[in-house]
Amino acid sequence: MRVAVVVGIAIGFWACAARPDPYLGSPSRGQMITHFDLALDARQHALFGELDDFRRVADELAQLEPADDLPAEIILQLGPMRWEAREASRARTVEEAASGASNIAATCGDCHAANGVPLGDRFTLGGPPPPGSPARHMAGLNWASRLLWDGLVGPSDRTWFTGAEGLKELGALPEGLPTDHDQNAVATMGARLRQLGDKATLARANRERVEVLADIWATCADCHTGPR
Ligand code: HEC
Ligand code: HEC
Would you kindly state where each structural domain of the chain is located, as residue ranges? Predict the structure, then answer.
């Protein structure tokens, strides 16, 4: 019984893709978890180019009412996040969705930095799965993409640069990906991911990071949505 509970918790935690441990007694904890989950969904819909789902989730985030027990000054600071989410909910292309998801993540990081919340230190680095199949390679790319996102949300240089290095390496796409794109297109996208990984390792300013991450997710979405 006890083992089952522990395993259940471990799997639940893993499925949440490394959401950091809660601060005990934090007033905004429930709210942050809702933000976190919506922003995470927005990120995944953006990189799969799922525009309808992306717009729906961004709209939910824009409409999220602040928790009653949240301090007034923090409620005020929610404005930029909700504003970016509102913009994102109007995305018409995979590029706009990718940019929206990246801009939302930056507003999380801005507020954490402004409030001196050391969230970045609590994100785990983890690692990609061992190579072996296209799905494993993709799980590796997803890992790198998650770390880059953590880098903005934290904000955290540590996760940002680890994600950037991961992308440089895993941008070298394996042969035999089950996609309708021809080999040239796949090679071009792989080269672009590595180039963007390079750019990410050099990006210091927040603005640059937001842009490079948007370009990365637009490239993922380009392949995932198939030839147009
Ligand atoms: C208005 C300011 C603000 C915005 C915007 C904001 N956060 Fe936070 N966040 C905080 C503060 C303050 C804390 C720490 C204090 C607390 O938890 O009460 C926190 C804590 C967290 C935590 C840790 C919560 C816990 O379990 O203790 C997570 C996760 C989190 N934020 C994620 C996000 C994500 C993702 C976004 C963007 C979608 C975001 N936050 C946007 C202010 C903000
Ligand atoms: C050149 C094409 C291509 C690019 C670029 C690409 N993917 Fe994929 N991705 C695929 C294919 C094909 C699948 C389906 C793999 C399968 O079913 O085995 C996939 C599936 C996935 C999955 C689901 C894996 C699973 O089966 O559970 C994730 C997550 C993923 N990709 C993340 C990413 C991320 C993140 C990026 C960008 C950093 C990216 N992909 C870029 C082709 C691509």
Answer: 28-224
